[in-house]
Amino acid sequence: MWKKKDKLPACVTENVREDLIKLVDVVKVYDTGSIKVLGLKRVNLTIKRGEFVAIMGQSGSGKSTLMNILGCLDRPTMGHFYLDGIDTAELSADELSAIRNRKIGFVFQSFNLIARTSALKNVELPMTYAHISKKTREERALMLLERVGLGKRYEHMPNELSGGQRQRVAIARALANEPPLIMADEPTGNLDTASSVEIMELFSQLHREGATVVLVTHEENIAAFAGRIIRFRDGQLVSDLPNVPQSQGQEETAKTEKEGAPC
Amino acid sequence: MLLENMSMAIHAIKANKMRSFLTMLGIIIGIGSVIAIVSIGDTMRFMVSDIYKNAGVTLAYVYVWPKDGGDMRESDYFTLDEMDRLKEVFGDEISYIDSNASTNAEAVFGRNKVKYQFEGIFSNYPEVQKINIIYGRNLNEADIKGRKNNVVLEAKGAKELFGTENAVGKTFRTTIYGTTDDYNVVGIYKEDLNPFEAMMAGTNATRSGYVPDSLLTWPNDNIYGLRLYAKEGTDMNAFSDTFTSYLAKTKNRNKEDVTFYSVSSEMGSADTIMGGLSAAVGGIAAISLLVGGIGIMNIMLVSVTERTREIGIRKALGAKTRDVLIQFLTESAILSALGGILGVAVGGGLVLLGGTLFHMKVVIKPSVILVAVGFSALVGLFFGIYPASKAAKADPIDALRYE
Ligand SMILES: Nc1ncnc2c1ncn2[C@@H]1O[C@H](COP(=O)(O)OP(=O)(O)OP(=O)(O)O)[C@@H](O)[C@H]1O
Ligand SMILES: [Mg+2]
């Protein structure tokens, strides 16, 4: 599993665990038969534990391609992706499944809850695949639904919930196995402004509690919640800047600070 | 995890009730017809063996008959003394022995004439075959020893001959072996036939009655063959062997010239017929289950395609190839087993209905039900392999992007 690492220069492998995500010269080529499409062109990127990162860029710039690689749903064509020090290029499909199960919580634009299955069962699902006992599963799923404000709706089917509520169930599900990394690809893309703010508040809260959050968005006001904004164009990283998070709670404190300032 | 898979499978089957039912139809019809045919077969087998049990599985007929077509010798016949001696020598095995003699004769009373078959018996015959006397008495030792013209008649025939069932004390005239004589009715019995026997006897106009065996062996007491009942629990094969050897020696014949014909061999041939029937049923079952299985495979393929996105979600959340494989295999096995259970209900219901309509005791073996349901689950498992492996191999990104 660790064979290739030995061949890499020391600067790449050292401190690997401190960085939750480390991309080294990652290239993704989509081979559609007739033409080859470059999804990502030599991307180098490091995300440390506890960061809240927003990824932005035009349509087709490679955001989802990057998310698929970060989410261990796909592997780079060239280069290396280390998740928590593990080189995913070396892993089999089932090993990737196990990593997704334990280390990554997914939140999708289209919610992706399992139809005709209760909120509770949906939240339980990652724990089921982690072979956690039924009792623990149910207790924890209820607790998580409570936390996203849906404690009373645990028996509801996805089609009985609003978009915002569905996305909150999805977030509860993403937290089921307490993964270190939360990945969200346009989580507010299908929501109205009010629900979007609610969902982003939830992500901010998770971040404050120590989770690493990586989210893709088209909207500047959504990206404003993050502590770091990365921009892509044509499969390349074009800008990587820190950001002062704009969560509502912090906005208010910022205001009072301004008001309280002497000049 | 298995329980989890089963509840997921039942969930999925319930979500599409009508489609699941139509999918199961092939299995339902297949298993239903198998259960019905096997149960009918078992019922018939049970009836046949019941008849033989009434006739006594210990019954055997013995003849000495040259196999090469040569002439019979005087010594090939049996005598009354010989019968007594055989009973002594094989006292551990034989409980009853007689001449197996019977004769057809027309009984006449006034203007009434009834065709009879008279069977010769000894007085201890009721010890091996029940004679249900409703009026009068059985033949006794004195009737046999004295070669008395006393008879016991079956009730239906008595009614035809005398106009009343209770004909004890009445006398009729008949001709046995060319000698016409008067015969006294000393007893009347009732035959209890099972429906199968009644069906077979329905058109038979010949009535039955018992006469002293000694009347039919008279005057020369040259007995052609023996009818004997072995004691219960006798190993008929071993007994047949020693008895045949013994007779061959005393009659100075080859063993092949002695015929020992027992009912257990007849039961064997009945089983052969049933065996043939079972093979035919097996053929029907195989074809219908094949068709049912293909139906299940078809609908599972549709289901896998429809649920591509679900598969993608499950994989993204950590389902391994094996998890998805088992999920869909469980679903097709449960779908098929459910079809099997419904098939058992339908087939069994039809058989029970038939049983009540025809007043027959039907036999539905639990083992047959278990095998049927188990086998249909296996069919589901087998035909689920291809759809399930298709689902398990799906790439999570492609599956998630599927609309
Ligand atoms: N499975 C695929 N096969 C072929 N080409 C692909 C595939 N997936 C993505 N691409 C191509 O790779 C490039 C990057 O696509 P990607 O989906 O990552 O863009 P994106 O930034 O997520 O866009 P959007 O904002 O519209 O979601 C595009 O040119 C796209 O056409
Ligand atoms: Mg995208």
Automatic annotation (TrEMBL), chain B:
* Any one Gene Ontology cellular component term annotated for this protein: plasma membrane
Q: Which domain of life is it from?
A: Bacteria
Q: Which UniProt keywords apply?
A: Cell membrane, Membrane, Transmembrane, Transmembrane helix
Topology in membrane = Multi-pass membrane protein
Sequence ranges assigned to domain ABC3 transporter permease C-terminal in this UniProt record: 284-396
The cellular location(s) given in this protein's UniProt record come to: Cell membrane
GO molecular-function term, one example from the UniProt record: transmembrane transporter activity
Q: Which Pfam families match?
A: FtsX, MacB_PCD
The text of the family note is: Belongs to the ABC-4 integral membrane protein family.
UniProt protein name: ABC transporter permease
PANTHER family documented for this protein: ABC TRANSPORTER PERMEASE YTRF (PTHR30572:SF4), MEMBRANE COMPONENT OF TRANSPORTER-RELATED (PTHR30572)
Domain MacB-like periplasmic core, first and last residues per copy: 20-244
Does this UniProt record's set of keywords contain Cytoplasm?
no
